[in-house]
C-alpha cells in the first residue's frame, strides 16, 4: 500500500531563500512541514523570522535544537568575526562544516516518519558565498543517499530533494518572492544583525541588496548600513 503523502519537509532558516522555497512548495500543492534547526547560530533573529514565515506558510513547524557551537569551525558558530569587506572568492569562514548534510539528514528523518517523500532546500549555486554544500552535485548525491539509507527507499518509495532556487540569481529569487505574494521584509538573511536590523555589510546582506537592485524592486530590508557591491 502506498502511504506517500502530499506533504513536503521544507528546511526553513528564516532567510529569503528558504521563505521562497516554502512558498514554491505550497504553490506546487504540498502541505509544508517546516523544519528549522537552532544550531547555535549567532544570527538568532533568523529563528524568529522562521517562526513568522512558518505561521503564514506551514501546516506544522518544528524547531530542533542541535548545538553545533560545540564543534565550532565557523564564524556562525564561534566568536570568529564575520567578514564584512565584500564577497570574496573561495569558501568563507561563514561556512558551517557539513551544515546542509546535517540539515537534510534531519529533514529526511522527519519526511520518512511523516510518510512524505519530498524535501525542499533553498540552496543556490549562482549568487551565493561559495559553500560546497550548495552545489547541484551535492543535492543529487544526497537524494541518492536518501534512497539507499531508508526503509522507504529500499521498498521503492524514493525521495525527491527539491532545490528550486539552485540555478536562480538573487534577482530572480527576489522576483519570485513578490510573484508568490510573500513579504521579503519578514525574512532575515544577515550573518551578523545589528540592533535587530541586517548589518548591510556581510556577504548575505550584499547579495540580498544586489538581488533587489538587479530585479528593479524596492528593497524593504532594514539595514544598519547601506550595502555596497
UniProtKB/TrEMBL annotation:
<feature type="binding site">
    <location>
        <begin position="12"/>
        <end position="22"/>
    </location>
    <ligand>
        <name>ATP</name>
    </ligand>
</feature>
<keyword id="KW-0671">Queuosine biosynthesis</keyword>
<keyword id="KW-0862">Zinc</keyword>
<feature type="binding site">
    <location>
        <position position="199"/>
    </location>
    <ligand>
        <name>Zn(2+)</name>
    </ligand>
</feature>
<feature type="binding site">
    <location>
        <position position="205"/>
    </location>
    <ligand>
        <name>Zn(2+)</name>
    </ligand>
</feature>
<comment type="function">
    <text>Catalyzes the ATP-dependent conversion of 7-carboxy-7-deazaguanine (CDG) to 7-cyano-7-deazaguanine (preQ(0)).</text>
</comment>
<keyword id="KW-0067">ATP-binding</keyword>
<feature type="binding site">
    <location>
        <position position="190"/>
    </location>
    <ligand>
        <name>Zn(2+)</name>
    </ligand>
</feature>
<comment type="similarity">
    <text>Belongs to the QueC family.</text>
</comment>
<keyword id="KW-0547">Nucleotide-binding</keyword>
<dbReference type="InterPro" id="IPR014729">
    <property type="entry name" value="Rossmann-like_a/b/a_fold"/>
</dbReference>
<dbReference type="GO" id="GO:0008270">
    <property type="term" value="F:zinc ion binding"/>
</dbReference>
<dbReference type="GO" id="GO:0005524">
    <property type="term" value="F:ATP binding"/>
</dbReference>
<dbReference type="InterPro" id="IPR018317">
    <property type="entry name" value="QueC"/>
</dbReference>
<protein>
    <recommendedName>
        <fullName>7-cyano-7-deazaguanine synthase</fullName>
        <ecNumber>6.3.4.20</ecNumber>
    </recommendedName>
</protein>
<dbReference type="Pfam" id="PF06508">
    <property type="entry name" value="QueC"/>
</dbReference>
<keyword id="KW-0436">Ligase</keyword>
<dbReference type="GO" id="GO:0016879">
    <property type="term" value="F:ligase activity, forming carbon-nitrogen bonds"/>
</dbReference>
<keyword id="KW-0479">Metal-binding</keyword>
<comment type="pathway">
    <text>Purine metabolism; 7-cyano-7-deazaguanine biosynthesis.</text>
</comment>
<feature type="binding site">
    <location>
        <position position="202"/>
    </location>
    <ligand>
        <name>Zn(2+)</name>
    </ligand>
</feature>
<dbReference type="GO" id="GO:0008616">
    <property type="term" value="P:tRNA queuosine(34) biosynthetic process"/>
</dbReference>
Amino acid at each position: 500500500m502506498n502511504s506517500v503523502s502530499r506533504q513536503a519537509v521544507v528546511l526553513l532558516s528564516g532567510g529569503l531563500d528558504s521563505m521562497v522555497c516554502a512558498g514554491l512548495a505550497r504553490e506546487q500543492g504540498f502541505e509544508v512541514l517546516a523544519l528549522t534547526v537552532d544550531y547555535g547560530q549567532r544570527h538568532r533573529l533568523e529563528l524568529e523570522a522562521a517562526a513568522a514565515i512558518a505561521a503564514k506558510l506551514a501546516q506544522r513547524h518544528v524547531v530542533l535544537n542541535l548545538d553545533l557551537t560545540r564543534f565550532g569551525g565557523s564564524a556562525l558558530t564561534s566568536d570568529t568575526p564575520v567578514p564584512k569587506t565584500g564577497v570574496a572568492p573561495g569558501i568563507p569562514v561563514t561556512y558551517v562544516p557539513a551544515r546542509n548534510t546535517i540539515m537534510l539528514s534531519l529533514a529526511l528523518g522527519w519526511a520518512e516518519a511523516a510518510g512524505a517523500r519530498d524535501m525542499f532546500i533553498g540552496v543556490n549555486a549562482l549568487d551565493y558565498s561559495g559553500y560546497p554544500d550548495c552545489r547541484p552535485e551535492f543535492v543529487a548525491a544526497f537524494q541518492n543517499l536518501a534512497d539507499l539509507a531508508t526503509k522507504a527507499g529500499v521498498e521503492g518509495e524514493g525521495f525527491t530533494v527539491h532545490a528550486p532556487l539552485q540555478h536562480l540569481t538573487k534577482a530572480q529569487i527576489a522576483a519570485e518572492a513578490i510573484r508568490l505574494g510573500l513579504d521579503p521584509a519578514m525574512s532575515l538573511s544577515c550573518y551578523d544583525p545589528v540592533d535587530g536590523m541586517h548589518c548591510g555589510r556581510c556577504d548575505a546582506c550584499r547579495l540580498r541588496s544586489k538581488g533587489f537592485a538587479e530585479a528593479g524592486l524596492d528593497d524593504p530590508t532594514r539595514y544598519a548600513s547601506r550595502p555596497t557591491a
